[in-house]
Design brief:
Chains A, B: This is Phosphoribosyl-AMP cyclohydrolase. Chains A, B: It catalyses: 1-(5-phospho-beta-D-ribosyl)-5'-AMP + H2O = 1-(5-phospho-beta-D-ribosyl)-5-[(5-phospho-beta-D-ribosylamino)methylideneamino]imidazole-4-carboxamide. Chains A, B: Homodimer. Chains A, B: It is an enzyme of class 3 (hydrolase). 2 copies of one chain form a homodimer. Chain A is mainly β. Chain A has a single domain (3-121), classed as Phosphoribosyl-AMP cyclohydrolase (Ubiquitin-like (UB roll)), CATH 3.10.20.810. Helix content of chain A is 11%, strand content 36%. Chain A has a 4-stranded mixed sheet with strand order 2-1-6-5, covered by helices on one side. A two-stranded antiparallel sheet of chain A has the order 3-4. A two-stranded antiparallel sheet of chain A has the order 7-8. In chain A, strand 5 (68-75) and strand 6 form a beta hairpin. The longest helix of chain A has 10 residues, at 35-44. Chains A and B meet through strand 1, strand 2, strand 5 and strand 7 of A and strand 1, strand 2, strand 5 and strand 7 of B.
């Protein structure tokens, strides 16, 4: 049995994927993969997601140079969520977020509102030329 | 504007939620919340999910005693994924998984197959009496 067959793909043929920076433990981003994206990710050792908005494979870093080396793939107890241990390339510290921040999870709930609490490390205009 | 209104709920009125153990950085589980579950989580300071299979609110630990204190709520750049920093209670080390393991992400891709690589810390039969 192929390891891809063991995944419980959702009604759209997708699985949610969490990317965690291996060295810091930081949760960097959350995205989706279809079967082809996950197969490519495993084959390349680099994150290839499925863009739900653009409806196509999205090799992370293809425009920004901010690729992600995938060290390890994990699957949860229900076989329907993937966790990846990654190294984020292209900047030090790593930038996973399209806003130029380290992690996509930069908004913290404080006093009844979401506050951006992490710095922009690089101007997004200069990331996506 | 209410902070709950800023979340982009999906077509089913849900948002994906990642629970990360604050002290270890380990990603413990992934689940879903509806508006009421997230409101209750913030109010209680304990994780309350929406069970998609049972179609009801699920106060984590209500049966097992393995509750989760929520220290921090984070929202991603697209306002459609929540990350929580938690402490897992009821066992040392914490057990988030219904299989009696520390984390739900205990299967690792190795040599083309998913291998369970984390120990069962407590027999699930004795967790859910």
């Amino acid at each position: 049995m192929n390891w891809l067959d063991e995944i419980k793909w959702d009604a759209d043929g997708l699985v949610p994927v969490i990317a965690q920076e291996r060295d810091s433990g930081d949760v960097m981003m959350f995205a989706w993969m279809n079967r082809e994206a996950l197969a490519r990710t495993a084959e390349l050792g680099e994150a290839v997601y499925w863009s739900r908005s653009r409806k196509k494979l999205w090799h992370k870093g293809e425009e920004s140079g901010h690729t992600q080396t995938v060290h390890e793939l994990r699957l949860d107890c229900d076989n329907d969520v993937v966790l990846m241990k990654i190294t984020q390339h292209g900047h030090e510290p790593g930038i996973s977020c399209h806003t130029g921040r380290h992690s996509c999870f930069y908004q913290r709930l404080e006093d009844g509102g979401w506050k951006a609490v992490e710095p922009v490390l690089k101007d997004p205009e200069s990331i996506y030329k």
